[in-house]
Amino acid sequence: MTNLKETSMIDRDELAGSNGRGMMWVIVSGLGIVMTAGAVAGYLAAHETQGGGAIGTAGIVTLCVCAAIIIGLAYAIWRNVSKMKASTEGLTRREKLNRNIVWGCGLAGGAIGLLLALYDTSDGNSDTGALPIFSDNPVPPVIALMLAIFLGVIMPIIAWFWHKRAIDEQEASAYRDGGYYAAYAFMIGAPMWWILWRGGFVPEPDGVAIFMLFASLWTAVWFWKKYR
Amino acid sequence: MKNQLKVLRAMRSWSQADLGEHLDVSRQAVNAIETGKYDPSLPLAFKISRLFALPIEEIFDDEFEGD
User: Fold this and answer.
1) In chain A, at which end, N or C, are there fewer CB atoms within 10 A of the end residue's CB?
2) Would you give the distance in Å from CA A70 to the centre of its chain?
3) pLDDT tens by residue, A52-89
4) Between residues 86 and 145 of chain A, which touch chain B (CB distance below 8 Å)?
């Protein structure tokens, strides 16, 4: 006779797989919502600057389509999160610790962004297009020192703890692979950009852009190797 | 690498998370090993071998056909 508990557990694991596809859909849907909401905000702002008044039929249709897209994407997030929740009812001790550390780092990143935005001492004219966390605008020395200590002292301790206690060997392997790809991209891409700039083909190399590309590639490969 | 992990796990009515807890790895790691997307390290292979009381070569198949 088939063991019901066994069947349901195996089916749930089969259904979940690595959860990578679900997570990818959640991320893509989230970005889609942010971009669609941005388009709506942009449209309304443009409408306002052109004198405001009643929105025409075309405008209403556009806004309705955007609203439908947002609702559809929100539904996709809900569906995928529900599936993942069903498959991850039994998180192992390491997974729980890993999840908590990742959430903690996310919150710390948000707090850093908030601090940089609140204590931006520029006169409002320079570098206004950049996100506060990537801006070159000056910040008070005390805030700069606090954040430098956090990044230089606290973060390495968290990273060491994360590597030693929270992640397992499969994730460590995915992380290493991400590091290889990112390191090669940096070692090849940065001098290439630099030499093309010297030849007058491209704008001057941008440290923040290089850092973002390096970090994004590392994260993308880590995600692919861990959840594929 | 092909392996018998899924069968051995099912025989004990363990979920991937249960096996992950026994091996001190994540459910994703168990899933990746079962589907052949990740080959475990030698220490983890020995751990699996001890857990199921079977030799490594009865759990993992490297598809080597020696003479």
Assistant:
1) N
2) 19
3) 778 888 888 989 999 999 999 999 999 888 877 766 66
4) 87-95, 98
A residues 159..188 contacting B (CB < 8 A): 167-171, 173
Encoded tokens for A158: 């968290």
Q: Give tens-digit pLDDT for A120-132.
A: 766 555 555 555 5
What is the reported pLDDT for A16?
Answer: 65
Cα A188 from Cα A13, distance rounded (Å): 41
- pTM higher than the cut 0.95: no
3-class secondary-structure state, position B57: helix
A62 CB burial (10 A radius; 0-12, 13-18, 19+): middle
CB-based burial label for B56 (10 Å; 0-12, 13-18, 19+): middle
Q: Give the integer Cα–Cα distance in Å for A226 and A221.
A: 8
Helix H, strand E, coil C: the string for A85-145 is: HHHCCCCCHHHHHHHHHHHHHHHHHHHHHHHHHHCCCCCCCCCCCCCHHHCCCCCCHHHHH
Per-residue pLDDT of chain B (67 residues; tens, 9 = 90+): 899 999 999 999 998 889 999 999 988 899 999 999 999 999 999 999 999 999 999 999 988 776 5
Picking from B10, B64, B59, B66, the residue whose alpha carbon sits closest to that of residue B36 is B59
Banded model confidence at residue A221, pLDDT cuts 50, 70, 90: very high
List the single residue in A with minimal CA-CA distance to B7: A10
Contacts of B37 in chain A (CB under 8 A): 18, 228
From the list A39, A27, A29, A47, the residue with the least C-alpha distance to A66 is A39
Which of A101, A169, A176 best probes binding to B when mutated, by most B CB atoms within 10 angstroms? A169
